[in-house]
Amino acid sequence: MSLCDAEKTFILHGVAENFRSDGRDREGYRPIEIETDIVQHAFGSARLRLANTDILVAVKIEVDTPLPERPFEGKIEFFVDCSANATPDFEGRGGETLAIELSNILASAYKSPKTFNLKKLCILKGKKCWKLYVDILILECGGNLFDAVSLAVKAALFNTKVPLIKSVNIDGDNVELDVSDNVFDCERLDVTNAPVMVTVCKIGDNCVVDPNLAEEQCSVGSIVVAISQEYFSTVTSIGIGSLHAQTLCSSLELGQKVGIRLNEALMDTLSHITSDQDFGFLK
Amino acid sequence: MAEQYKSLHPAKYYRDHLKHDIRPDGRELSDFRPVVINVGSIKTADGSSIVKIGNTTVVCGIKAEISRPKADAATKGFLVPNVELSPVCSSKFKPGPPSDQAQVLTQIIADIVGNSQCINLEELCIFPDKIAWCLYADLICIDYDGSLIDACALALISCLKVVSLPEVSYDPSLDKQQVNLEKRTPINVNSVFVSTTFAIFDDKLILADPTVEEENLCTGTLTIVTCNDELCYVHKPGGSPLVDEQMSDCIEKCMNRSNSIKKLIKTAILENI
Amino acid sequence: MPVDHKRINGPEESVPYELFARLSGLTSEKAFEQLYKAGKRSDGREFEEHRKIFLKNGAVSQAKGSAYIEMGQTKVIVSVFDPREIPNRSDYSLKGELYCEFKFAPFSCAKRRLHQQDNEEKQYSCIMKKALESAVCLHELPNFQVDIYALVMHNDGSALSAAITAAGVALVEAGVPMYDIITSVTVGIQQGVKLVDPDSLEEQMCQVQFLSEKYQDNNHGLLIISKLHTQEQLCQFYQNGYVSLEVLKSGLEVLSKTCEVIVPLVQKCLIKHITNGIKS
């Protein structure tokens, strides 16, 4: 999408008046729809629509050996796939850099033990642990990917059921795990502290959250903040453009404020989802 | 003016110089470039060296890890040399898997190490069939200005000379190993190999220690590696043929150079300690 | 793992020997306690003091521009090559592009690195690209790509910052048009203590959360910024770990101040480069 100068000015003035082209204020999000448990073969899954952005996340679990230098910890790995259907830019290898950027930011945001405790995923010290494969599929790209992806990931992890282990048999170097036969015997993961990401975009002299594609074009610089409770787990600048230290500070403040609110809303929604609800692709 | 002449007619430019028995960088035909060796400056490696021959720079770092000997060589450890032509060193190399040149170079260095028997692999074994040392020697070129085999060989041998390994005690009954980081011992290096490259210009002139420009213009190269006053490896990948006289002349030069290089390695190591 | 046929492979499995050593090393918590009590760092620096920097341009004869930087033990070399047409692209782009590759040498870290770029290196390449993109006048290089390669020979902390500062100098030497001098600094945060330009042990210390009761402050993490000097613009900012807003803001201030300390060094290096150019 390319905008002419007049269109850009229109958006710029709207932001300055705190009344954006789609009627939101600067701190407002577009409607978000979320649905969990929609991929049957996965241990946990979620689908999220934020305006035209459409994300599907599935979590798979495998048994693995812990890293020798971290014997008490399980593993988590993020993999982002930018489907070529999402936007014409992703054709060929176009989506690759974005996919790497997204998975790196997620990995960095989930790295601190305060945000996501990998020790819970350890089965037997130094021998066995769970490894979570978080597969993120971007079905359609309508701006603000970082926020949408982080919310979908958090929802999918919330939905993830880790199988219960009945017993562990150790025979010399061999370890045998006995997984409970009942499929309903499972543990949920603790995701209260899992980070949500907020993209703060500087347009004109003001900062906005959840920019749409047109607004992203007018931005002079943007940062992504990952908020876990009121702490920052990752902050990174994205795209071309630079910010003054003062602007950065105010963007951080805005990001934190919105992040906390967003997290509350998400946790609230997730806690209301019951297992007997209808499900399907956003029915 | 000379700049333009050089870029328009590089071969002619060289021929004009060589007619007067001098090379564009001021050396005579059989002169070598100055050599600088620095050892032990990379503390994260178990042994390291940086070698400069003129502008050509190679960094070598050896990292030791513990592994299990192969079933068919139960009493041997491992020495794994790899040469990397990193994209840092020249615009010729792009990131990605090793280029053909890097693969050839890696194989040449591995052959030199094998032929010279400088390391007795059996000494790297800690307990037969159970545990052994594996030395990963990574050679990274950070400035590519010709005679790369010489620089790599020199970097590797001076690096091997300074490698020290911690003491390992192995208890076969418990199958447990204990490493004592405080007590480090150097490894035995039985022989020192020295490599010398020559370029053959216009099928007759022989230039010692060529730069990358000379390598590109020449009609053939010749690399001779000596070890303990014996020939250890000779690499002549096609190109202009040489007569016996020229060949023996090169070998003689190589022998002479090897003595001074050996002295240089010694002083470099002494200075480090 | 697939076998790499283009290199000489060692045994299928090998492990670092440090794993079998008697646990004598300091834990991060103990190391922090020592540091906190002494009020100084293990190498005698104040908390907010940068290590001495050695910066030299023209380290690689074959590159258009190059720089070598040493910060304490950290050694990084950066090369920049002539702009070339953007490969594999059919349409014309009005702006130029940068290609950055950040690589740790296999022997540069405590644990051996593999030859292929791992995720951390890819992320660092991304951050480096982001930082330099804002410093280079991309509109003056339409449809061209400038390749920038950084190789870490010895990683003793703050390697990314070192690479970005050095890349700025290398770009100048290569004659790439730029808006400003770019400098970059890392700071580590643990328990509210800010360690400017951390070495690798300190970096490690800032990545973990202390479990013992004494330490109630949850703040820990790393902050990296790159700054354009005259415009006072932050062209890149990266943080990880778990940090509160206040600490983040004060960290930012410390970083900005430290960047100013490095600028004269970069300027001196550039002036030397130019005067040498005039003399020859």
Features:
A: 283 residues, alpha+beta, Ribosomal Protein S5, domain 2, 15 strands, B: 273 residues, six-stranded mixed beta sheet, four-stranded antiparallel beta sheet, 31% helix, elongated
Provide an overview of this structure.
Chain B: Keywords: Cytoplasm, Exosome, Nucleus, RNA-binding, rRNA processing. Chain B: It holds the Pfam family RNase_PH. Chain B: Belongs to the RNase PH family. Chain B: One of its GO terms (cellular component) is cytoplasmic exosome (RNase complex). The complex is a heterotrimer of chains A (283), B (273) and C (280). Helix content of chain A is 27%, strand content 34%. Chain A is α+β, with helices and mostly antiparallel strands. Chain A has one domain (5-273): 2-Layer Sandwich (Ribosomal Protein S5, domain 2), CATH 3.30.230.70. The longest helix of chain A has 28 residues, at 245-272. Chain A starts with a helix and ends in an 11-residue tail after the last helix. The model of chain A has no long low-confidence stretch (mean pLDDT 87). Chain B has 273 residues and is of the alpha+beta class. Chain B has helices at 2-8, 10-19, 100-116, 148-162, 212-217, 244-272; strands at residues 35-39, 47-53, 56-67, 78-85, 125-127, 131-143, 164-171, 176-186, 193-201, 205-208, 220-227, 230-235. In chain B, strand 1 and strand 2 form a beta hairpin. Chain B is elongated, with a radius of gyration of 21 Å. The mean pLDDT of chain B is 92. Chain C is 29% helix and 27% strand. Chain C has 280 residues and is α+β, with helices and mostly antiparallel strands. The longest helix of chain C is centred in the last third of the chain and has 35 residues, at 245-279. In chain C, strand 10 and strand 11 (233-243) form a beta hairpin. In chain C, helix 2 (119-133) crosses helix 3 (159-173). The interface between B and C is large, with 54 and 50 residues.
